[in-house]
Design a protein that fits this description.
The protein is built from seven helices and ten strands. It is α+β, with helices and mostly antiparallel strands. Strand 6 and strand 7 form a beta hairpin. It binds a DNA duplex (14 and 14 nucleotides) through helix 6.
Length: 265
DNA sequence: CATCTTGTTACGTT
DNA sequence: AAACGTAACAAGAT
């Protein structure tokens, strides 16, 4: 499920637990989502600390607790966050449960591509500090974007948009949505975009990010009816503008849908 | 049964 | 060294 706006939606779902202490942690340390960390540390250190705040950057989530504890989450392909009652007992794919007096904060992920990280220290963990600037921020300039595309010039622009080091939070459907609205063929090589196309791409990208955050993050509402979003997974998907059948082809290993009229190659 | 999936990452090659 | 392509990870839906 999760790209930029969906990740922000899931972050907010745990907000009910803000300011409250963790009483117990339930987890299975052998699950793949705990790869690379000592899951036992969570069980040992989190109980007794207060959930103070949280933040999303692209697809990364950071939850901050008292006692200088930091919990990082990546939702992978199928991860979700939700809230259950205080005596909740975890189901098959509920890999991490933070129990509080009045509720439980649950991380669920059937496919196990998600990831849990844990850090103790005065400052946020290294992996968080070094993340690229948000696409909706001032720091994401057109020049910065153009430089990134130049460095990955041999990649189709669709493939480049999926690189989190340059476009944090963009996933498969957002990349297609952006290219469709910018009227760019997804197979165009990244170093073949002219100045006009770069400007259009930059503006469109920021618009799609802002709009997705506005529509989806508060309550998981669908984007507006006229977005490519609603057509791209249908067998008989058509371009919302000219009703042409969408073309589909894997690019960078991901199914890509585009309109052959609006986005000629 | 075969094929598909809104994501990364390890690994080998260029 | 950096960029690139592919396979792998895992589970559920169609």
């Amino acid at each position: 499920v999760p790209e930029l706006a969906e990740v922000e939606y899931y972050r907010r779902r745990w907000d009910g637990g803000l300011g409250q202490r963790i009483t117990t942690v339930k987890l299975h340390a052998a699950k793949r989502v705990f790869r690379g960390i000592m899951a036992r540390e969570l069980e040992k250190l989190l109980p007794g600390s207060k959930f103070q705040r949280s933040e999303a950057r692209g697809k990364q989530l950071l939850f901050c607790f008292s006692n200088h504890l930091w919990l990082g989450l990546h939702l992978g392909m199928t991860g979700t966050l939700r809230v259950e009652g205080p005596a909740f007992s975890p189901g098959k794919h509920d890999h991490l449960v933070l129990c509080q007096r009045e509720r439980s904060l649950v991380f669920n992920d059937p496919r196990l591509f998600g990831r849990v990280r844990f850090h103790q220290g005065m400052n946020p963990p290294e992996w968080w500090v070094n993340l690229p600037p948000a696409l909706t921020s001032k720091a994401f300039t057109k020049a910065k974007m153009a430089g990134f595309l130049q460095r990955h010039g041999k990649l189709p622009v669709k493939a480049a948009l999926l690189l989190q080091s340059g476009f944090p939070g963009i996933g498969n459907w957002m990349a297609d949505e952006i290219l469709w609205r910018a009227r760019l063929n997804p197979l165009t090589l990244s170093n073949r975009l002219d100045q006009g196309q770069l400007l259009t791409l930059w503006r469109t990208l920021r618009q799609v990010c802002r709009s997705a955050l506005n529509h989806i993050s508060p309550d998981f509402s669908d984007p507006p009816r006229d977005w490519l979003f609603h057509q791209r997974w249908k067998r008989d998907g058509r371009c919302p503008i000219d009703r042409e059948h969408l073309r589909r082809q894997p690019i960078a290993g991901r199914t890509t849908a585009w309109c052959p009229i609006c986005q000629p190659g």
